Amino acid sequence: MSETTNNTASVMTLARDNVQQLTPYLSARRLGGSGDVWLNANEYPLPPSFALTSQNLNRYPECQPVEVIRRYAAYAGVQPEQVLVCRGADESIELLIRAFCEPGKDAILYCPPTYGMYSVSAETFGVEGRTVMAKADWQLDLPAIEQALDGVKLVYVCSPNNPTGNLINPDDIRSLLETTRGKAIVAVDEAYIEFCPQATVAGWLQDYPHLAILRTLSKAFALAGLRCGFTLANVELIDVLMKVIAPYPLSTPVADIAAQALSDQGLALMRARVAEISENRLWLQQQLQQTACVEQVFTSESNYLLARFSAASAVFKTLWDQGIILRDQNKQPGLSGCLRITIGTRQECQRVVDALRPLPGANSSISETVSASKEPM
């Protein structure tokens, strides 16, 4: 073994035990690929245009930029003191765990199939990730959740849910909030709420001091590369999160662009994007339902569609080889044979349909020709 290898091995042994065992979240960028149609990360397909207006880069930024907070509060229909801005909703997930969960003692709870960062963040901080499987219709199994709440400090509910695209029944969320009152924080992840704004629970904050709502500019605002997200909550909860947030979570350029995106003009552009993506989603859903290799297309309230395919791995690889990169959900509980397709431009959606149409359906002799060891995930 070389000296470099020995040094690397010694560094690994210095890491915390749980980190040594940790499998990191496989984001779209980590998975790679060399495509030209990127439909695997739920991004908006075209870049927005912004010009920086702030030039005081020699100074540290505000911890909580006032104009961004003010504009987001007005947009979300809450008070400025109920808004915390941070580096994407992913940081909100981590802040909640760091603030409310004792490593080695407390647990978080989430309901697969759902967003993978809840479990990764919990494992990173040495907190138990407890799961209660969603029901067959991907709604909350409330009796099972109630039975599993012992030692749980934090419950994550994603609505619309990623990767399934469905909304969680609001009556079930209310029941969960009542069950957890005085016991645990309930974090409702609304990363995709712009695609179904009527479903937000932001108006419930006055009734539930233990409710936190996670938001982002990454999806409908077309700013995934900006890394700007928000936590909406009551003042007491925000104050707790402020104890553990970094001193300068948003850089000056990020705050500058975020404020522009939240202006009246920026909000109008966002809503136009939502209308465009919703129209493309309906078109793609109709096309997929007429495609032989597609067994089922699930209803979505987001900027992606989940579909079940015959020979899903071969379908995934075939499109991958044509430069069309989808997200394989085969390994998610209950999602065997499922691929997630971000809604792109109409031309990108057409590329998907054109690539799928020649592929045979379930009654053909096609076999899964791509081995698990070679299949790009």
UniProtKB/TrEMBL annotation:
<dbReference type="InterPro" id="IPR004839">
    <property type="entry name" value="Aminotransferase_I/II_large"/>
</dbReference>
<dbReference type="InterPro" id="IPR015422">
    <property type="entry name" value="PyrdxlP-dep_Trfase_small"/>
</dbReference>
<dbReference type="Pfam" id="PF00155">
    <property type="entry name" value="Aminotran_1_2"/>
</dbReference>
<comment type="similarity">
    <text>Belongs to the class-II pyridoxal-phosphate-dependent aminotransferase family. Histidinol-phosphate aminotransferase subfamily.</text>
</comment>
<dbReference type="InterPro" id="IPR015421">
    <property type="entry name" value="PyrdxlP-dep_Trfase_major"/>
</dbReference>
<dbReference type="InterPro" id="IPR005861">
    <property type="entry name" value="HisP_aminotrans"/>
</dbReference>
<keyword id="KW-0808">Transferase</keyword>
<keyword id="KW-0028">Amino-acid biosynthesis</keyword>
<feature type="domain" description="Aminotransferase class I/classII large">
    <location>
        <begin position="38"/>
        <end position="356"/>
    </location>
</feature>
<dbReference type="GO" id="GO:0004400">
    <property type="term" value="F:histidinol-phosphate transaminase activity"/>
</dbReference>
<keyword id="KW-0663">Pyridoxal phosphate</keyword>
<protein>
    <recommendedName>
        <fullName>Histidinol-phosphate aminotransferase</fullName>
        <ecNumber>2.6.1.9</ecNumber>
    </recommendedName>
</protein>
<feature type="modified residue" description="N6-(pyridoxal phosphate)lysine">
    <location>
        <position position="219"/>
    </location>
</feature>
<dbReference type="InterPro" id="IPR015424">
    <property type="entry name" value="PyrdxlP-dep_Trfase"/>
</dbReference>
<dbReference type="InterPro" id="IPR001917">
    <property type="entry name" value="Aminotrans_II_pyridoxalP_BS"/>
</dbReference>
<comment type="subunit">
    <text>Homodimer.</text>
</comment>
<keyword id="KW-0368">Histidine biosynthesis</keyword>
<dbReference type="GO" id="GO:0000105">
    <property type="term" value="P:L-histidine biosynthetic process"/>
</dbReference>
<keyword id="KW-0032">Aminotransferase</keyword>
<dbReference type="GO" id="GO:0030170">
    <property type="term" value="F:pyridoxal phosphate binding"/>
</dbReference>
<comment type="pathway">
    <text>Amino-acid biosynthesis; L-histidine biosynthesis; L-histidine from 5-phospho-alpha-D-ribose 1-diphosphate: step 7/9.</text>
</comment>
